[in-house]
Amino acid sequence: MNTQCNADLAINVTDATVHYGQVQALDHASLQLAQGTVCGLVGMNGSGKSTLFKTIMGQIKPDTGSVKISGTDPQQARKSGKLAYVPQSEAVDWNFPISVRDVVMTGRYGQMGWTRRAKKKDHAAVNEALGRVELTDFANRQIGQLSGGQKKRAFVARCIAQGASIMLLDEPFAGVDKRSEATITKLLREVADEGGSVLISTHDLHALPDLADEAVLLMRKVLMHGRPEVVLRAENLALAFGLDPMKRDAS
Ligand SMILES: Nc1ncnc2c1ncn2[C@@H]1O[C@H](COP(=O)(O)OP(=O)(O)OP(=O)(O)O)[C@@H](O)[C@H]1O
Fold first, then answer.
1. Residue 178 to residues 73, 75, 160, 184, 206: CA-CA distances in angstroms?
2. Domain named ABC transporter: which ranges (predicted)?
3. Lowest CB count within 10 Å: 21, 54, 108, 184, which one?
């Protein structure tokens, strides 16, 4: 789909197979994502989307194949702050006694050294990120006391404070109000326009053509990768879902 050489690819997953015991979650999946693109990841429940994210993040080592992030290992890309992940809401402990500001500050930890003492530039990065997601007024609230959409915005702000140029977002629009969806969409577009890359799983297929430059259909392997309006054609969705999810909930 792209003409960049491998080291220029933001994400390069080649032939990744992942098992959880007897369950095969990825089956020789390959995905190349160029710099400066927003890509939507679409697939039914259990098709391997979260597993693919974890594999790209280096949290799961695939049985076969390899993952490169801008030509380096995922661990190295995470350490340098280049690669960031916004997990599904269910994966977060919202009762943890931490403020919105401190959640965003965790994005700076990699650059602070072992003392984790925030300097002026760290506070400035956090303030700027909070402003970009319109959460400045909520900075001192405990993270669990935000709405679903505000929580997502806080985690996007964390990626921005980190200075990440490659962002993975697992269902960022699930249970999210329209304002938050619009704010997040605008920010992701800005990240891509600045040369970053965004991979975003979503069940909201109607929103995808406005949000993403590309779409990927996943069913343990990548069935199709191309322009959203082509990938989301009914006959292609039928391959991935066995029905027409534009007429029904894609889950
Ligand atoms: N920790 C685990 N142990 C065993 N099986 C798992 C584990 N995590 C995921 N699976 C299985 O692996 C497959 C892929 O799961 P995964 O969570 O990657 O799918 P998904 O596309 O993200 O699903 P959803 O849309 O529901 O979030 C599923 O069959 C799931 O049941």
1. 36, 34, 21, 10, 14
2. 11-244
3. 21
Q: How many CA atoms lie within 13 A of 233 on its CB side?
A: 8
Ligand 1 test: best mutation among 23, 52, 204, 219, most atoms within 8 Å of CB? 23
pLDDT in tens, 14-49: 999 999 999 999 999 999 999 999 999 999 999 999
Q: How far away, in angstroms, is 206 Cα from ligand 1 center?
A: 24
Phi, psi of 9 (to 5 degrees): -65, 135
Q: Examine the pLDDT at 2 and tell me if it is beyond 50.
A: no
Numbered ranges of CATH 3.40.50.300 in the chain: 1-82+165-251
Residue nearest atom 28 in ligand 1 by C-alpha distance:
46
A 10 A CB-CB count for 178 gives 9
Ligand 1 site residues (CB inside 6 A) read 20, 23, 25, 43, 45-51
Nearest-CA residue for atom 29 of ligand 1: 46
CB contact at 8 A, 52 and 216: no
DSSP H or E stretch at residue 77: helix 74-79
Whether residue 183 contacts residue 134, with contact meaning beta carbons closer than 8 Å, is answered with yes
49: its two tokens = 């989307």
Q: What is the Cα–Cα distance from 240 to 179, expressed in whole angstroms?
A: 30
Dihedral angle at the C-alpha atoms of 243, 244, 246, 249, nearest 10 degrees? -20
> Can you name the CATH fold of 1-82+165-251?
Rossmann fold (3.40.50)
Alpha-carbon distance values, 210 to 38, 49, 168, 250 (Å): 10, 21, 18, 18
Query: Which residues have CB under 8 Å from 5's CB, separation 6+?
Result: none
Half-sphere exposure of 168 (CA within 13 A, CB side): 26
